[in-house]
Amino acid sequence: MQIKENDVDHKQEDIFHTRCHIQNKECSMIIDGGSCINVASDTFVKKLNLSCIKHPRPYRSHWLNECGEVKVTKQALIVFAIGKYSDEVMCDVVPMHATHLLLGRP
Prior knowledge:
mainly beta; 7-stranded mixed beta sheet; Cathepsin D, subunit A, domain 1; single chain; 106 residues
């Protein structure tokens, strides 16, 4: 079976919605092949009382919410599970309403 180049490019931009477990709580997750960052909702991080650290390279972002520019200054290590698979990922903490956790490509 051969895959056309256009099909490969298209699949890298697919968005996959799923649920995961973090601290035994069910959470929403989006895996976005077209994104290169990992972000967690600031409300979600506060609700679960997750520890945050200062972001090593703070930056500004425009696309995550409708409030305009957002300064990203914190990160949190998120330990999650999907079924029997578990992992941890460092996420930038941002105001976001679309999902609890958004993972991009590494």
